[in-house]
């Protein structure tokens, strides 16, 4: 067996269009703007620092000080990443006295992280 064949994508031997499948795809494929927004969302998950922050928030609501200490990073670096996560509606914050606590925005974020971990552990 040629080792290069492992990385090759198999293609059809003939060109045959399947109208019934194309009809289904055309009826269910989201519009370009929605697909773009989805791709942008997944880009946010493409940064290991943001993933680490989300994993901390997966377990508890914490302030920037706690995140900085847990991840051994500066508060400034944490704040920068939190701003990106908040803008993307992945985290939310609440003020309590002089502290601001961050948590996951909703259960969708928890599901995305859980399913991603489940996928890579297979």
Beginning-to-end CA distance, first to last residue: 26 Å
Report the β-strand fraction as a percent range.
5-15%
* Element string (H = helix, E = strand): HHHEHHEEH
Radius of gyration, in Å, reads 21 Å
In CATH, what is the class of the domain at 48-122? Mainly Alpha
Number of helices: 6
Question: In short, what is this structure?
Answer:
Helices cover 58% and strands 11% of the residues.
Short descriptors:
3 strands; single chain; mainly alpha; 122 residues; Arc Repressor Mutant, subunit A; elongated
Structure characterization notes:
By secondary structure, this protein is mainly alpha-helical. It has a domain at about 50-120: Arc Repressor Mutant, subunit A (Orthogonal Bundle), CATH 1.10.10. It is built from 6 helices and 3 strands; from the N terminus they run H-H-H-E-H-H-E-E-H. The chain has helices at about 20-30, 30-45, 50-60, 65-70, 75-85, 105-120, and strands at about 60-65, 90-95, 100-105. A hairpin with a 2-residue loop joins strand 2 and strand 3. Helix 4 packs across helix 5 (about 75-85). The protein is elongated and about 65 Å long. The two termini are about 25 Å apart.
Fold blueprint:
Elements: H1 19-28, H2 32-44, H3 48-59, E1 62-63, H4 64-71, H5 75-87, E2 91-96, E3 99-104, H6 107-121
Antiparallel strand pairs: 1-3, 2-3
Helix pairs in contact: 4-5
């Amino acid at each position: 067996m040629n080792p290069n064949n492992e990385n090759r994508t198999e293609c059809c031997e003939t060109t045959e269009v399947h109208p019934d499948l194309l009809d289904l795809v055309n009826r269910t494929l989201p519009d370009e703007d929605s697909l773009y927004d989805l791709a942008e969302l997944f880009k946010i998950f493409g940064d290991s620092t943001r993933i680490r922050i989300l994993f901390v928030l997966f377990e508890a609501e914490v302030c920037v000080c706690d995140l900085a200490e847990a991840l051994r990073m500066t508060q400034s670096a944490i704040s920068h990443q939190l701003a990106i996560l908040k803008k993307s509606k992945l985290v939310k914050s609440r003020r309590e006295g002089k502290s601001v606590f961050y948590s996951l925005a909703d259960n969708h974020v928890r599901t995305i992280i859980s399913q991603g971990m489940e996928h890579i552990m297979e």
